[in-house]
Amino acid sequence: MRVLVVEDNDDLVALVTKALARAGLDADAAQNVADAEASLRTVQYAAVVLDLGLPDADGLTLLDQMRRRRDRTPVLILSARGGLDDRVGGLNKGASDYMVKPFSTDQLIARLQATLRRSPGPDGPTLTLGNVALRTDGRQAIVNGRMLSLPTREVDVLEVLLKRSGRVVSLDSLQGQVFGSSQDIASNAIAVHVHGLRKILAEAGANVQIHTIRGAGYLMDVAKTG
Fold first, then answer.
1. CATH no. for 126-222
2. pTM over 0.70
3. Would strands 75-79 and 132-135 be described as parallel, antiparallel, or unpaired?
4. Which of 8, 40, 85, 141 is in the most buried spot, having the most CB atoms within 10 Å?
5. Domain residue spans in the chain?
6. How many CB atoms within 10 Å of residue 215?
7. Which CATH superfamily is domain 2-118 in?
């Protein structure tokens, strides 16, 4: 899972990033609201750690913008503002949690992990395999946290193979789930879409493979390393 750290203090960014890494979480950093907005529109983050005193705008501006466009990514505010009104205001704006600086990195990780456990996900059910994910409600494919642009049929193929990852999906089954009962399809239609999906996933750095099982169908699993 990948976390966005929005903080303009380089030392704090390094401290938080190292703590996240120890917990098995990847991290990107943004030093202002504009950069954070750009990152949020291109990467699907599991959570955001948000400072409020940013150079170009108040961090609450970013939180407000996220919630207005229905971005439900969990946000943990990490701020020097410790007043009751500040905490209540942040939570009322849609933050999942609020911590005050100075802070314990152990407590930060514990509270962030608790926030992640409570979160239903940004867009409903998600299918995952390796570093590949598919948000089924939004039909959005993601590799290593970065959103992909996939044609509709490639998304259909990916969804079927993810639902049965590690198992063979017959050609007839795959064709039926992708095209329905339509009879007007080329004999190599599935092969064409599987080829296109393989190419896009490989270029995005996906660590999964789609195997052609001769006479049986297709199987998707995590690529072996070494």
1. 1.10.10.10
2. no
3. unpaired
4. 141
5. 2-118, 126-222
6. 7
7. Response regulator (3.40.50.2300)
